[in-house]
Amino acid sequence: MSRSLPPPEWLLAQLPGMSPEDSLKLDEIGLQTTTDLLKQTQTLTAQRQLAARLQMPDRWVRKWVALAELSQLPSIGCQYCGLLLHGGVTSVAQLATMSTHTLHRQILRLQVAAIQRRDRALTLVLFLSGFKRLKSLRTKSPSNPDRILVFSPYQ
After folding, report:
1. Domain that holds residue 36
2. Which of 6, 55, 113, 154 has the fewest CB atoms within 10 Å, i.e. is most exposed?
């Protein structure tokens, strides 16, 4: 019998691109972890209210929410959530419906743009082996039971 563990919880300061100043602002209003952020921003209205409260653009809050959601996948975490977001993946639901080849093409395009060399980019074989387990388990999100998370259990 396979048992899945709850999604990982990260400090907001660990999210890629989170500045110390923004992390401090979030901490001051009681948001310290990705779970805290996801619980407080389940709707677009709540995200806009948080942005207004912090006096910052809505897009920053939407970016943090996307990173927090993607980081809940054990195979992704804070290490790869930024790569996925910059590759065009904005949610776990979107990731769950993408074909591996489409995702690889988007990540490859991003890598080539960043390093200016296609020969140094992640190969399809390596990419497939790294993301093979990603779609192996479906579970409900603890912060939003209507949202399906797709991730592989720790093994």
Report:
1. 12-150
2. 55
Instruction: State percent of the chain over pLDDT 90.
Output: 45
Residues 107-122 as b/e (b if ≥16 CB within 10 A, e otherwise) read bbebbeeeeeeeeebe
Concatenate the DSSP letters of all residues of 17-82 into one string.
T--HHHHHHHHHTT--BHHHHHHHTSSHHHHHHHHHHHTS-HHHHHHHHHHHHHHTSTTTHHHHHH
Tally of structural domains, the chain: 1
Beta-bridge partners for 33:
11
Amino acid at 150: V
Q: Quote the pTM value.
A: 0.75
3-state secondary structure 70-109: HHCCCCCHHHHHHHHHHCCCCCHHHHHHCCHHHHHHHHHH
